[in-house]
Amino acid sequence: MSQYDYLFKILVLGDIGVGKSCLLMRFSDNRFTEKHVCTVGMDFRVRNVELAGRMVMLQIWDTAGDERFKSLLPSYYRGAHGILLVYDITSSKSFRNIDGWLKEIRRMSSESVNVMLVGNKCDDLDNRQVRMEQGFNYANHRALGF
After folding, report:
1. Which one has a higher pLDDT value, 31 or 122?
2. Which domains occur in the chain, in start order?
3. What is the mean pLDDT of residues 21-41?
4. Which portions of this protein are annotated as coiled-coil regions (predicted)?
5. Which of 37, 94, 116, 142 could make a disulfide contact with 87, Cβ separation 3.0–4.6 Å?
6. 64 phi and psi, to 5 degrees?
């Protein structure tokens, strides 16, 4: 008998340096580092959570945002139930690049995949370049979670 009732595969995508690995580290291990953590290729974490009395296993795939590793991504899209598309609120460039990531997602993943836009580094409000309303409106116009 399995240890979970449901299994979901989640991908974490976005430009290099937006904090994908830090998000995953915080969620899976409750750890945080201010140092840049460079993912080479892919990293994989598992976290079990209980929802409505059911055990859910989340397989979370942390992807390298570096252009050199983009060729690895297509095989990881297969079977994904959800995608966290991450940008850095202190980098308007990372927000502008969301369009390219979203095109890639639409091209490579199933139509049923759920995509959520995530603004990261919200603890650095003094350096904010992307307002919350911008992220919300972008997500809303493209039927993404936010």
Report:
1. 122
2. 6-141 (3.40.50.300)
3. 70
4. none
5. 94
6. -70, 130
